[in-house]
Amino acid sequence: MQELILIRHAQASFGADNYDLLSDLGHTQSEWLGELLAGYGLKPDRLATGTLRRHKETLDGIRKAFGDLPETEEYAGFNEYDFSGLLNAHHGGEAPEHLHKDQKAHFQALRQTLAAWQRDEIDNPPEMFSEFASRVEDARRKTCRPGAKRVLAVTSGGPIAEILGAALRMPLDSRVEFNMQVKNTSITRFIFNERVFYLHSFNETPHLDRLDRVAQRTYS
What we know:
Layout: E1 2-8, H1 24-39, E2 46-49, H2 53-63, E3 72-74, H3 83-90, H4 98-101, H5 103-118, H6 129-143, E4 150-155, H7 157-168, H8 172-181, E5 187-192, E6 197-204
Parallel strand pairs: 1-4, 2-3, 2-4
Antiparallel strand pairs: 1-5, 5-6
């Protein structure tokens, strides 16, 4: 059996001009995660990310705790959906500014937007939900090809929830709720071979479970 370890990127820069950059805390979260994985002996023999900068910066932090690791494979299928574009489309072309800047308002609106997107109720979205699901599955299949015992992929909350939902055959509305729960630098693990693919654990953050780090758990 092979193992797939999905990592959600570390804290990015919500509300900034460029969200796709890790915050100072995000860089620290990545390094803590690398130390944990190395300490547990969970050295991957295949690495993958999406093409986003926050994915690559998270993997850079993880790499610091290891010696030599394989070259990184990049798959755009692991990229997040365009949440800003979806919010704008759901509001007729331009969402109120506070939905892009205020975290509480953003996530409340995003939950409703994702549910509508999955039901094909949004006109002219950046991509159809079916296209998103298809590209995520394509990236998962390519990453989980034979030849590696332990695969580690850094991605985003949306793809993690979609892979989880497909594996467990969840209804679409349940996938939205799991999407909202995925923490930065969380670990979600699957066991698979050429015939089966099933969940082993979801959304774990043991590197942030210490009392002096609990406040460093984040969701954006």
